[in-house]
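Subgroup meeting minutes
Present: P.N., E.W., G.H.
Scribe: E.W.

1. P.N. recapped why we're keeping a running log of single-chain structure predictions: easier to compare across weeks, and new members can see raw inputs and outputs side by side.
2. G.H. added today's entry (120 aa).
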Amino acid sequence: QVQLVESGGGLVQIGGSLRLSCTASGHTFGMNWFLNWFRQAPGKEREFVAGIRSIDGNTSYQGNVKGRFTISRDDTKNTMFLQMNNLQPEDTAVYYCGTSPTSMWRGDYWGQGTQVTVSS
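Output recorded in log:
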């Protein structure tokens, strides 16, 4: 059974940084999995933020976060990361990791979410 557990959210001021982590059990990142981060702001639909293909490290980012966020993974720890820099109020959301064996930009398995709040 696949389980994903996120950590690293919190409250940060405008321009600050946070690093989110997502540790998986039940599947191995070294296989051909798509490891993704999504977020959902209040009153909005869940949206794709960033993704990485574990087999070759190919990445994709939503336009609003490109240049500020970096997705990575550590296959030895079965953990993926989202480094978020220069955070803005519009980045406030619950962040979810989602993995899929078939596609980037979707999640077949989900973590419980971690809150990120950017305050002015």
